[in-house]
């Protein structure tokens, strides 16, 4: 149901960036009202995840959720809006607007003295190719202000119905980031080192994370549905070696329920 959107934006992430709602919208539309060209899902749930990207401590956070789709060209969810400009022979090209949630130095003791990373808007493009239940995709997102991040996401996803009510999915993706993103979230300059007590650390652009996840959506009735997702993020390269990072493995679990109008 798109609970990750809140990766992440930078972390559902955000840093667990968001790359789709996680629901097979076309199949749900066909089941409920195939003659209608829009859908609206409202719901909520909770997510168990690291307190910040690289943390060894976890928190439970509520997830309000609204997803609106119109035809097969517009989707609006908590992560932002996606407009599909081109669809042909399984290939699609879309533009996106969203946000990067940033990071608060007060979120964890490990972050004290490192300063805040401001909330900022993002713009991006997404290219995808669908081959039956398999989707190959690539995304590029630029943060306007804040960390001034440029992030690329490359992945493969699978979604297919097991029964009329149950849909299973799986996804694997790699995330690369520019030097500004790496410096903002994982680097430590001289002033930050003096304020935090952590050693200075310089980062470079490159692969920062690999994500794998599995999800299940179940139709309780013609309108109510429940969705769960379990994922594991693996920090790599300069991100994994940063003094800010306490744990390279970043698991998360989410569960939510929604009502489809």
TrEMBL record:
Keyword Transmembrane: no
Region of interest: Disordered: 1-29
Superkingdom classification of source: Bacteria
Broad class of the protein's primary localization: membrane
Localization terms from the record: Cell outer membrane
Pfam (any one): MipA
Keyword annotations from UniProtKB, A to Z: Cell outer membrane, Membrane, Signal
Nucleotide-binding as UniProt keyword: no
Family: Belongs to the MipA/OmpV family.
Listed name of the protein: MipA/OmpV family protein
Species of provenance: Phyllobacterium phragmitis
